[in-house]
Design a protein that fits this description.
Layout (H helix, E strand, L loop, with lengths): L16 E13 L2 E7 L15 E6 L12 H7 L7 E6 L2 E3 L4 E7 L7 H7 L5 E8 L10 E6 L4 H10 L5 E8 L13 E8 L10 H8 L7 E8 H14 L7 E7 L5 H6 L9
Parallel strand pairs: 8-9, 8-11, 9-10, 11-12
Antiparallel strand pairs: 1-2, 1-7, 2-6, 3-4, 3-7, 5-6
Helix pairs in contact: 4-5
Bound molecules: flavin-adenine dinucleotide.
Length: 279
């Protein structure tokens, strides 16, 4: 694991520190767990205007002595970056302000990492901290149809975006999962066809199943709005499909890596500044 925590653009005013308590954990599928969280800290959470809203969950480094209660801004002002807590980025799947709860869906991808293993064993009463939310995307109201592509890490955000579309929206979604048991119900408008791309036991983040499914599909006519996120190599390949093969304009496309095969998030984020990390 990297010893240099990811840099952060979070600021006290725009992406405040939120301290929540786990209310319940739901097993959505063999490879995805939903953490529903709330508690007194929920009152500080303010939704932004974006549908792809995400938060940076904080994981204090073992062996580093942080003053309690944890104050991220004091830590960033007074401690060297090498001692800052690690962060992991997650979509806010839904927010229920009446119940004072929000949900985050975590891919369970094995024993490696911080967030996945944490979510796998989190239990009611556990507390955790994040900053946020950030966000950048809303479906373009001018589009004739919508194209979604992603793997499990992007399943929560793709589901949230699809469920936000108007009832008469049209679109195609391609979502890669391990197998049938990982398919989730998405409350999609009738005109949005959700296609599940199954790896059937092959490792995540490898292969060309998702990219081929998008490239080989019969695309509807009209102006498309694309929302594609997931493993970095997949997104690089999709970049070529979207811009080179299909000739789309930059402003029609929301495309980014959500993780990179074999990289902890700190390294993945740091590599965004290098040629290997650019999409
Ligand atoms: C804006 C944004 C929103 C995101 N939303 C979500 C979300 O809602 N749910 C979600 O689960 N993820 C989401 N992700 C991806 C998530 O941040 C990464 O998967 C992150 O690396 C997980 O942290 P970790 O501590 O579990 O693993 P890390 O410590 O970062 O990595 C440990 C190892 O696990 C591998 N790994 C990491 N993620 C996966 C994966 N998904 N599948 C297989 N292997 C993996 C790494 O390559 C590495 O080898 C989002 C990312 C971004 C940028």
């Amino acid at each position: 694991m990297s010893t240099v925590p990811a840099a952060t653009s979070a600021t006290k005013n725009t992406r405040p520190q939120i301290d929540l308590t786990v209310v319940r954990r739901e097993e959505l599928s063999p490879h995805m767990v939903r953490i529903v969280a709330g508690g007194p800290g929920f009152s500080a959470y303010v939704n932004n205007a974006f549908i792809d809203r995400y938060v940076k969950i904080v994981f204090p480094q073992p062996g580093v002595d942080y003053a309690q209660p944890l104050d991220l801004w004091t830590i960033r002002e007074t401690m060297p970056r090498a001692q800052w807590p690690f962060t992991r980025t997650y979509t806010v799947r839904w927010v229920d302000t009446a119940a004072q709860e929000l949900a985050i869906d975590f891919v369970i991808h094995g024993d490696e990492g911080l967030a996945g293993p944490w979510a796998a064993t989190a239990k009611p009463g556990d507390t955790f901290t994040f900053t946020g939310p950030g966000g950048a995307y809303n479906p373009s109201p001018d589009a004739d149809w919508y194209l979604f592509a992603g793997d499990e890490a992007a399943l929560p955000v793709i589901a949230a975006v699809i469920e936000s579309l108007p009832a008469d929206a049209r679109g195609l979604a391609f979502i890669e999962v391990d197998g049938d048991a990982d398919i989730q119900h998405i409350a999609a408008p009738a005109g949005v066809q959700v296609n599940w791309v199954r790896r059937n036991g092959a490792p995540a983040g490898e292969g060309d199943l998702l990219v081929s499914a998008v490239a080989d599909a019969d695309w509807p006519t009209g102006r498309v709005d694309v929302f594609a996120h997931g493993e970095r190599g997949y997104m690089k390949a999709l970049r070529d499909v979207l811009f080179v093969q299909r000739g789309l304009e930059r402003k029609q496309v929301s495309l980014s890596g959500y993780w990179a095969k074999g990289r902890v998030e700190d390294d993945f984020q740091a590599e965004k500044k290098l040629p290997v990390g650019k999409i």
